[in-house]
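Aim 2 progress. For Zinc-ribbon 15 domain-containing protein, the working sequence is reproduced below.
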Amino acid sequence: MFFFFVGGVTQQVRQVLKPGAGRCIVCGSRADLVEYEKVLKLFFIPVWKWPGKEPLMHCNNCDLFFPPSFSLPPPPRESSRSPVSMISDTLRCQFCDRDVDPEFRFCPYCGSAL
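Predicted structure tokens for this construct:
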């Protein structure tokens, strides 16, 4: 008899503590300071949830969780926008690595979902 196990532990955002608190260490997009929870899934169904120990940074663009100590400085405020700061407010496509307007849901260059 063979038993095939499909499942694992994932992380998901429970509550946003401070939106735009820093930048992602992978794609450079805005990252939020969040409380998170770990979720045990069996056959892709959540079975058990428990809270994480410390707040983490979470990137909405590439769905990465990382410690606040590794975060890049937050993007400049809206009032001090310059051509240089406008570049930091764009998202980066995780597939073709090009700058994309944050209002887009799909990359205009390769068509992947953001």
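The first strand starts at residue 7 and ends at 23. This observation will guide construct design in the next reporting period.
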